[in-house]
Amino acid sequence: MKILIVDDQNDNLYLMQSLLQSQGYELILAHNGQEALDELSTNVIDLIISDILMPVMDGFTLCREVRKSPAYSHIPIIIYTATYTGEQDCELATRIGADDFIVKPCEPEILLKRIQDVIEGPRTDRESSSHSNDNEQEILKLYNERLVRKLEQKMQEMENEVAERMQAIEALRRSEELLKGAQAMGKMGGWEYNAVTEEMYWTQEMYHLYDIDPDSHEAQELVDSSLQCYPPESREKLQSLMEEMYAHGTAYELESWLTTFKGRKIYVRATAQGTMENGKLVKALGIIQDITESKRAQIKQQELSEQLRQAQKLDSIGQLAGGVAHDFNNVLTVILGYAEELLNNLRPQDPIYDDLQEILNAGNRASSLTRQLLTFSRKQIIQPQLVSINDAVNNLYKMLMRLIGEDVDFEIDLQEDIPPIMADIGQLEQVVMNLVINAREAMPMGGKLSIKTFGFEVNHMFHDQHPMIPPGEYVVLKITDTGTGMTKEIKEHIFEPFFTTKERGHGTGLGLPTVYGIVKQAEGHIHVDTLPGRGASFVILIPSAKGEYIYKAKPEDLSDKKGAKELILVVEDDPSIADLAGKIIHKIGYEVSSADSADRAMVMIENEGLRPRLVISDVVMPGLSGLELAAILRFKHPEIKILLMSGYTENVITKHGELDPNLPFIQKPFTRAELADKIRATLEAE
User: Fold this and answer.
1) CA 379 – CA 372 distance, rounded (Å)
2) What are the distances in angstroms from CA 62 to CA 49, 104, 298, 443?
3) Is the pLDDT reported for residue 377 higher than 50?
4) What is the β-pairing status of strands 2-6 and 26-30?
């Protein structure tokens, strides 16, 4: 039995062919109604199964043509459709002459059963019953109505489909724009490699990251050579990772610096992953992201952490150095005091005179070292005043000129009307001197040395980059040389006490630590910029102060003035120092009483009626401190003068370690002349 299958969809033809041939039917295939009529003219057909909606001639028209033909009208026809599925469609098919109307899809068993029923059903002559004029017109009317409605339905479906496609296109466009914007904001470019066609695709942001114009004639050549933008060590590692990915699809991630084709230096994170099929790479996807800002922030954080670590280390060293210096000062006070007393009682021709002089000289050198340690640890007592940093430079100008020699080009650039700072002028001069000496020694073959001062405002942007420097107005001292410079390793230790790169015996290692201590005690900041062979630049920032600075005349030397038996009370918990001070004070013409603590001194004054003209007190003692004793006496007995002494004060006198200018002070160790001068000045002060 031959069955003619009519359908414009090859898939439908294939399915019908597979199903019916397995049942022993012989099939003839046609893609539209016209092809079906052609097949009818050359073949004897036992059954027609036809779709409705087809090009050239639809199924309804085919059915009508078959029924109108005396030669074919006896052939049963099954309409098999997925488009015309309504009851009116079924009615129209029946009126035209279809023997059955089946809606796609249909279960194979049901479809075969209905085909068998049509084949075995009774034959009727449909030509006479379906082609009267009235019936023909009615069928034509129904056909036109169904055709119009179906066209309208198809048009609506097409419009809906077009609208959906437009929405999909718009959504795709929006997604592409969002992806493109996200890649631009995230500085992230993507690439895809087709291993089968060996084609590489880059996103727009990839071209931007490498500074390549995608429309230029050399774009592809630059893309092919993009690995050259990486430094050699990263390039080799990346090539190795890519080869591993091509061989096994292994994902990789690499971070590296990259120099674009326009010379920009950026830090990127490159990631990629391959897709394998049958053991071969078919596709690879990758991302390259510019993380330069994150990397620089990380580097900055590391630098700040290192600065903090260095500051903490120097502070710890300073605590140790200050404690040692304080205790050593007490010992030196006794050694120098008694050595001086012995020397004063001898004549130069005495056999031991020179030996005592050497002891005194060595003690003075030791005293100088302890003062430098105290300065580094910021525990030396200072009496700051409003000064101009320019004066510290100008005061030393002639000495500096002789010091640096003629083979060094010396330049000074001092800003006029520079704001004053609160500092000790002597310590500022020491800072300048130490830095200039170091610079000169770093230029054995000559060079250039410059000293520059200027005002500078630390704004919030600068503070964000240098968090350890608070915003505000600063005065800057910059000393730059063109000498040998320093390595990073040496730079990390230059402010540590006793660290030196000089030969043994040619430096104490306290020059720069002293500079560091002076700057920090002035609430300033110091930065060193140096490289081997590129010289060094020391930049010091000290907060500017309000007011006008005034130089005080050098006080009159009062050390030769003898006392008039005025009573002086010495308050000192160290018996050896108290005994020494008492002997010196007695020899220069004063009466002396001693107390081993501030509490004992108050008992002597309040309960025992002692009325000294002057109280000389240590600062740090068990019980009441010297500062507390001074406060009590100034309140209860303003007529009693106060003179404080100490090796250091542990920031007791003020929270900044600065001495109240109304409290006279003498630094241990002291000489007989220094003590005599300070006593007389204190007694004669208003």
Assistant:
1) 10
2) 11, 19, 79, 109
3) no
4) parallel
Assign residue 446 a region: left if phi > 0, alpha if psi is -120 to 50, beta otherwise? left
* Angle formed at CA 571 by CA 565 and CA 572, multiple of 5 degrees: 125
Q: Whose structure tokens read 């800057």? A: 476
Q: Is the peptide bond before 105 cis (omega within 30 degrees of 0)?
A: yes
> What is the end-to-end Cα distance of the chain in Å, rounded?
141
pLDDT value, residue 297: 84
Query: Residue 372: pLDDT above 80?
Result: no
Report the candidate in 57, 89, 94 with the shortest Cα–Cα distance to residue 78. 94
- Output the 3-class SS for 115-136: HHHHHHCCCCCCHHHHCCHHHH
pLDDT for the residue 173: 80
Higher pLDDT: 544 or 130? It is 544
What is the C-alpha separation between 656 and 201, in angstroms, rounded? 65
CA 138 → CA 62, 92, 416, distances in Å? 17, 10, 113
Q: Could you tell me the pTM of the whole model?
A: 0.42
On whether the CB atoms of residues 191 and 286 are closer than 8 A, the answer is yes
Residue 598: pLDDT band with limits 50, 70, 90: very high
Range with lowest mean pLDDT among 164-168, 308-312, 600-604, 668-672: 308-312
Tell me how far apart the alpha carbons of residues 656 and 653 are, in angstroms, rounded to a whole number. 8
Measured distance CA(519)–CA(380) in Å, rounded: 13
- The interaxial angle of helices 87-96 and 133-185, nearest 10 deg, is 140
Nearest CA among 187, 11, 166, 168 for reference residue 82: 11
What is the chain's mean pLDDT, rounded? Answer: 82
Residue 500: is it exposed, middle or buried by C-beta count within 10 angstroms (0-12/13-18/19+)? middle
Residue 649 has pLDDT above 70, yes or no: no
Residue 314 to residue 147: CA distance in whole angstroms: 96
For the chain, the C-alpha Rg in angstroms (whole number) is: 52
What residues have CB less than 8 Å from 474, skipping those under 6 apart?
455, 456, 457, 458, 524, 541, 542, 543, 544
Residue with tokens 């309409």: 79
Return the half-sphere exposure (C-beta side, CA atoms, 13 A cut-off) of residue 297.
5
Q: What percent of the chain has pLDDT over 90?
A: 27
State mean pLDDT over 105-123.
Answer: 87
SS3 of 156, please?
helix
Each residue's pLDDT tens digit, 192-248: 999 888 888 998 888 988 999 988 888 888 888 889 999 999 999 999 999 999 888
Q: 408 forms bridges with which residues in the sheet?
A: 447
Cα 684 to Cα 153: distance, rounded to the nearest angstrom: 118
DSSP per residue over 562-575, as a string? PP-S-EEEEE-S-H
- Banded pLDDT at 497 (limits 50, 70, 90): confident
Q: Strand, helix or coil at 81?
A: strand
Amino acid letter at 289? Q
Do the beta carbons of residue 190 and residue 284 sit within 8 Å?
Answer: no
What pLDDT, on the 0 to 100 scale, is given for residue 427? 80
Per the DSSP assignment, residues forming a β-bridge with 658 are: 382
Distance CA 127, CA 420 (A): 122
Q: Residue 289 in contact with residue 186, Cβ under 8 Å?
A: yes
Q: Backbone phi, then psi, for 672, in 5-degree steps? A: -60, -40
As a dihedral over the C-alpha atoms of residue 25, residue 29, residue 33, residue 35, rounded to 10 degrees, the angle is: -130
d(CA 43, CA 1): 12
pLDDT grade for 478, boundaries at 50, 70 and 90 = very high
pLDDT band at 378 (very low <50, low <70, confident <90, very high): very low
pLDDT at 493 over 50: yes
